[in-house]
Amino acid sequence: MRNLYLPNGMSLESLPFSKPKDKEKAAKVLSCMLKWSVLTDETQTGVQINSKFLRKIAGGNYAKIIRPLVAEGIISVSQSYKVGERSKTYSFVESFTGVEVIKTKGNWRKKPKGEIPAFLIKQFNKLTINEGAMEKEEVKKALEAKVQNGNVKVPEKYAFCYKSIREKDWFFSRDEYGRLHTNVTSCPRALRKELRNEGQELKGIDLKSSQPTLLLYIINEDKREIKDKRIEEIIRKEEMYLNIVLWHKMTTLRAKQGFADYQKEIKDGVFYDAFMGKLPTEHSLKKNRDEVKKQILKCFFGRGYETSCIREELWGAYPFLAEAVQMFKPKGHHQRFARLLQKIESHLFIDLIASRINREIPNAPIFTIHDSLYTTEEYKERVFRMVREECTEFLGFEPHFGYE
Q1: How many other CB atoms are there within 10 angstroms of residue 273's CB atom?
Q2: Any idea what the Cα angle at residue 97 is, between residues 95 and 100, rounded to 5°?
Q3: 83 in the same domain as 224
Q4: What integer pLDDT is reported at residue 242 of this predicted model?
Q5: pLDDT on residue 263
Q6: Quick one: pLDDT at residue 204?
Q7: Per-residue pLDDT, 108
Q8: Distance between CA 141 and CA 134 in Å, rounded?
Q9: At what angle do helices 380-395 and 210-220 cross, to 10 degrees?
Q10: Is the separation of the CB atoms in 338 and 300 below 8 Å?
């Protein structure tokens, strides 16, 4: 990114420093807090920043930048820090509904992080967002609904996404799990509808029940005649599935109670709805599909001590899942399961699908959002067909998709 972003009502001049260089360092810290806050869970109140990064943007003595910001009531810092486990949490003391743009010379963040295909970066040259999108009734209602549900960072997320796209100030980062993060991936769904490529509205396709579907792919992987070398490399790097014993366990998992139902429901595209049908009539989430999905993924990826209000029902409906999750998420390494699925997901959508589209239709605009892909009406039919073909070949069965 080439610009800095501060909460509305704030400016470089208002920051509590006498030296211009210190003001700029403080602005970089606040801008990173704002940007990272839109990339994390909307219900979290702060962002985690480690000391290595702070030294990079604010200098070795970064504490002289942080302390005045805390003393003036601009930010707060959580002291709950464990070496090697997580960074300190930094939060804005007051919420805000807009952002101020601080123009800078050049690109202060240098180059995109991670290996990002050049064709995905160049797609952003023609991307815009409708002027006045934040004033659209649909956007306002979506924002208000999120706030009422306790998503405390929504106002600044909407404001930052809108402002950075209007300024054509792009950021690109591919994390260690292969996922690509951009202005588009962080853009809320309501605002995403206001995006335009050369004036054309974006059309999207997404893999339904993507995480449960990729779990089914892994369990069935040892049965496939054609092996994906990249997946074998990913599995080796994850260290947990190195020996042939695990693949023998896959056969055992497929014989467990509940696997046949799980496989059929995934292939029919009704997994979440089918599970909701198995919940007791009096269950509080019986008709709340979004929350059921969130709780299932919490069972998949959460820490061992974290509880889910549907865990017992989920393990009861699909007994094999309890064993599968325990196998893929060994004690002390709860991140590995999510990390594995995210790497496979990014390989499928970026390395296979997006790369094929770029080879065969180089002029087609494509924007990936993890398990989904967007293009324009002009190219929709051909692009969506390639997505379906690549997913079917990769998974070994024809999955179901959602369209936007």
Answers
A1: 13
A2: 105
A3: no
A4: 43
A5: 94
A6: 95
A7: 46
A8: 10
A9: 40
A10: yes
Give CA angle at 63 (58, 68), nearest 5°: 100
Lookup: tokens for 342: 């995210």
Same-domain pairing of 170 and 219: no
What pairs with residue 368 in β-bridges? 373
CA proximity to 381, closest of 228, 263, 157, 205: 205
245 plus 334 within the same structural domain: yes
Written as six digits, the tokens of 252 are 């055992």
DSSP character string of 313-358 = HHHHH-HHHHHHHHHHS-TT-THHHHHHHHHHHHIIIIIIIIHHHH
> Among 320, 313, 294, which residue's Cα sits nearest to residue 215?
320
- Considering the entire predicted model, what is its pTM? 0.81
Strand partners of residue 181: 173
Answer yes or no: do 137 and 163 share one domain. Answer: yes
Q: Which of 160, 156, 213, 196 is nearest to 374 (CA)?
A: 196
Q: Are 254 and 216 in contact (CB under 8 A)?
A: no
> Residues of the chain whose pLDDT is less than 50?
108, 241-245, 305
List the one residue out of 344, 310, 106, 357 whose CA is nearest residue 237: 344
Q: Is 228 helix (H, G, I), strand (E, B) or coil?
A: coil
